[in-house]
Every structure is written in C-alpha cells, then in structure tokens.
Amino acid sequence: MKKIVYAFVVMSLFVTTFTQAQEEKSNDFKRWQVRLRGIGVVPNESAKIGIIGGDVAISNAIVPELDFTYFFTKNFAAELILGTAKHDVNTVGSDISAIGGPTSFDVDLGSVMLLPPTLTAQYHFFPLKEKKFKPYVGAGLNYTLFYNVKEGDVVKAIEYDNAIGFAAQVGFDVMFDDTFFVNFDVKRLFLKTDVSVDATNLAEGLVIPAEVEINPWIVGLGFGMKF
Fold first, then answer.
1. DSSP state of 90
2. Under a CB-based contact definition with an 8 Å cutoff, are residues 112 and 86 in contact?
3. 2-226 CATH
4. How would DSSP label each residue in 39-63?
5. What are the boundaries of each domain within the chain?
6. Among 63, 69, 65, which residue's Cα sits nearest to residue 36?
7. What is the pLDDT of residues 54-80, one digit of tens each?
8. Which candidate, 89, 88, 93, places its Cα nearest to that of 53?
9. Number of H helices and number of E strands within the chain?
10. Whole-angstrom Cα distance, residue 33 to residue 203?
11. What is the dihedral of CA 193, 11, 217, 164, to 10 degrees?
12. Per residue in 26-37, pLDDT tens?
C-alpha cells in the first residue's frame, strides 16, 4: 500500500508539472541546467539473513555525480541524476558454528558497485526578492543496478537483484548570476534488494539468502550552469 501511495504522489507531481508547462507560454527563463557535484553516499542499512543470521554493514562512499535538469516552468522541473559508487560489504554477528566457526562472526562479502539513475520531479521556490537563493523539494523513482561484484576470499559467489526504489530530495541553489550557481542537495533513496550468497565452497549445498535494505542518504555539493 505504501508503494502505491508513493507512486501516486510521484505521478501527481509529473501531471502537475506538465499541466503547468502547457499553461505557461513564456520563454523568458533558461530551461536547462547541468550540475557537477561531489556526493557522500551513506547507507542506512539493515538485513534479514537466512541460515547464519546477523546483520549487514555497507561502507560509505564519496564519488562525483552529474545531473541534468529541465524546467517546464520557472517553478516545476525534472532532474535526472547519474553517478556510481563502490561499497564494501560484510555481515555482522553471524553464526557460522555449523561449519566450525564462532557463533558471532563478521563475514567478508567483498564489494559491489551500484549505479542508481534517479529521476525526480521538483518544485523550486523563490523566497527572496532578488531570486539569488532558490530552495527546492523533489520526489521520484530510482532504479539501481548492481555490477562488478567482488565476492572476497570467504564465499564462492554473490548475486544482487537490481531494484526499483523511491527517492525524496531537498536542496538549494545560490545564483552567482543568471547562468552560474553553487548547489547543496540531500537525497534519501528507499532501496532494498534480494541477495543470494553461494557458500558451497564452505559446506555442500550452502546458499544463504538475504533481504537487504540499503536506504542511503546522499549528500552533495557542487557547481552548476543554466542554459
């Protein structure tokens, strides 16, 4: 039900955006902008791990990010966010006594790269008369691709399912002039994936399933240009 409600809200934002675009015929503003940001990706992770139990730990990452925004009106816009990040992964407090290990052990699961293109619909405010400070809010959809999986030295293989999630966003631009600006942005992705860990090298037939919630915070700072 929550997913249906979120999807309805996102679709409503897009419908409103296109409606406003049809109503506003003025071309006295720049419709495109591009930004280059440095972002910190901070997972807020948790997991349900079968057989061995425990939780999951996913490392933070700092990476560059590129995004493009199109303004349908001066207030309504759509933004496409592109970036990729590498994360180290391990279980926390897993019970591997069945294969001769301790009852609480952190299993190294190597690393994985995430490519999470995200599309958000945004509303931009102009609270100051001179319009130099422009805050905005946004909501949208994310599709995360998991690739370049390195399973580490413990298990045989790991498989991550690609996943669709929701995104929420808040930020602001500070304009230097009508072309260049600095940007601060915070996003939260609501993202989970099913994971299958092939540990048949440790015990015959041992395949460990897990449901992992990543739910990262993404904090960005960068520069942009309108055109």
1. E
2. yes
3. 2.40.160.20
4. EEEE---EEEETTT--EEEE--EEE
5. 2-226
6. 65
7. 999 999 999 999 999 999 999 999 999
8. 93
9. 1, 15
10. 54
11. 10
12. 567 799 999 999
